[in-house]
Amino acid sequence: MSIVCGLPILECVYCLACARWVWQKCLYTAGHESENWGLATAEEFENVPRLCRLILFGYEEDICNPLWAPPGGYGINPDWVFLRKDYEDTLGRVTPYMIYLDHDNADIILAVRGLNLAKESDYAVLLDNKLGQTKFGGGYVHNGLLKAAEWVFDAECEVLRELVERNPNYSLTFTGHSLGAGVVALLTLVVVQNLGKLGNIERKRIRCYAVAPARCMSLNLAVRYADIISSVVLQDDFLPRTTTALEDVFKSLICLPCLLCLMCLKDTCTLEEKMLKDPRRLYAPGRLYHIVERRPLRLGRFPPVVRTAVPVDGRFDHMVLSCNATSDHALIWVERESQRALDWSKNVISLDFS
């Protein structure tokens, strides 16, 4: 009887918790986290659209006759593709990837594709993690993504060493999208820890561009490697902000109210200071580049701007309630808006000089 009498009270508490969470989230927009960051220059951001197109190029079955080229084409020379590996080659350990010799930009590029919703092995990689499960380099990293990165390093170490020694003036760039972004971020950590295996390549020749990455490393590692790792996030993208267990996110594709319930209770009952001070908590890696092209209470898209920082606080810590949270994760939109942002930045510079 006492339990039955307490049900209305529990219902009221639940409703208040949900209302509080919704009110907080409705007031929170993607521009808040980067509003005090500086603007990225065209020079430091110019590689991003090109690398996005290279990752997209990796999805083409016939690279000599591409079917899904973005407006203006890929700008990729098929003859410079040094190596391609598909799921049959990777045995499900990692998503397909390619090595491309960009002679125009003096760059050796390893590009890793993102998660394939139809591949169970990709889910196994992304969901293979628990809070504080894996230590690496004085911090914590995502267990499944680290294993995928180590597999790629073991498989391609000799190839990369040969290319680095054959092209001593070329940079070594790792890039990927979504799950692939987390893999290349941790691959960069593995490479830096094993420079001797790549012919003692200098750290300054190594770069990583993680596009729409999963949260894959603790804050101390994210800051320590900010000189060579960059994360690119388009507006409201959900994955770099996903602080709940990834299992819950993918379950929410079937039952979104379940996720909202869990997040309501978690946000209501857990002190934010406690969560942010947890050294095991994972974050988007390196320097952050935030592409902002929509404004609160404004309709339509505006000329995008790119804000950048190496933040310790406000590193995409909260989900944003937005109908664009999933579409902003799509690589084709990141490529398009990053190119628009780059063109806009160059136009502003040319107008200033004129």
From TrEMBL:
<feature type="domain" description="Fungal lipase-type">
    <location>
        <begin position="110"/>
        <end position="244"/>
    </location>
</feature>
<dbReference type="GO" id="GO:0016787">
    <property type="term" value="F:hydrolase activity"/>
</dbReference>
<protein>
    <recommendedName>
        <fullName>Calmodulin-binding heat-shock protein</fullName>
    </recommendedName>
</protein>
<dbReference type="InterPro" id="IPR005592">
    <property type="entry name" value="Mono/diacylglycerol_lipase_N"/>
</dbReference>
<dbReference type="Pfam" id="PF01764">
    <property type="entry name" value="Lipase_3"/>
</dbReference>
<keyword id="KW-0378">Hydrolase</keyword>
<feature type="domain" description="Mono-/di-acylglycerol lipase N-terminal">
    <location>
        <begin position="10"/>
        <end position="75"/>
    </location>
</feature>
<feature type="signal peptide">
    <location>
        <begin position="1"/>
        <end position="19"/>
    </location>
</feature>
<keyword id="KW-0732">Signal</keyword>
<dbReference type="Pfam" id="PF03893">
    <property type="entry name" value="Lipase3_N"/>
</dbReference>
<dbReference type="GO" id="GO:0016042">
    <property type="term" value="P:lipid catabolic process"/>
</dbReference>
<dbReference type="InterPro" id="IPR002921">
    <property type="entry name" value="Fungal_lipase-type"/>
</dbReference>
<dbReference type="InterPro" id="IPR029058">
    <property type="entry name" value="AB_hydrolase_fold"/>
</dbReference>
